[in-house]
Please model this.
Amino acid sequence: MRHVLISGGSRGIGAALVRAFCADGARVAFLYRSGHEAAAVLARETGACAICCDVCDPEAVTAAVAQARDALGGDVDVLVNNAGVAHIALSRDVDDATWRRLLDTNLSGAFYLARAVQGAMIRQGFGRIVNIGSMWGKVGASCEVPYSAAKAGLRGLTMSLAKELGPSGITVNCVEPGVIDTEMNAALDAETRAALVAETPLSRIGTPDDVVAAVRFFASDAASFITGQCLGVDGGFAI
Ligand code: NDP
Model:
């Protein structure tokens, strides 16, 4: 039975991942930052273990991984780095605190978690790490400079960790969603959504389940010879 840890599991794509891995029969723990009520409801619904942990804090991450190990009854063998935060503004209006928060949440948090779980994965000679990037990390987004830079950093993290951990039986891959229907995009008005759909070859907004399918694949035995890859789940937007 797989032991799965998902960051940012309280809503959106992360909550869909929690439901999917629980449905697959895995033991699942998830991290969240502030959505106590949503996390508690999801934990009750799925049987997953909810752990409040800000992924920007390396010490809290180390403690959360230990807590997950206890709750799961064994070491984490699948890590999904999904926690993320976006910020839309001209780069000249981005203050230092916002820059750091975007880099810390989207990039450093993934590093801290990968670092905290890898010792046990190396010992067991098996592990799967899936990072949730973004198509903006591939092609860049105007007015989303810190977010795009952090997600581009996840590409480097994915490839370098894949090389370092491959000999230990650990694969590291990245899923890069396009526009997905979650709270992260709640602020988009109808006109902007329509423009995004018009720019998408497959002519629709994505769903959390579109992302789940790619993550499940990278976590599965079918992907055992695939590592260091970035897979767009964007309806062709970033081709
Ligand atoms: P949501 O905004 O719906 O959910 C974000 C999740 O991340 C929440 O569970 C939130 O917890 C958690 N989170 C945020 N900051 C922290 C933190 N510091 N520590 C721990 N948890 C944190 O986002 P989505 O589901 O839309 O996005 C999930 C991932 O997919 C992100 O990495 C995002 O960048 C990426 N993505 C999303 C796209 C989209 O169009 N939606 C497109 C491309 C990529 P809490 O609720 O407690 O704050």
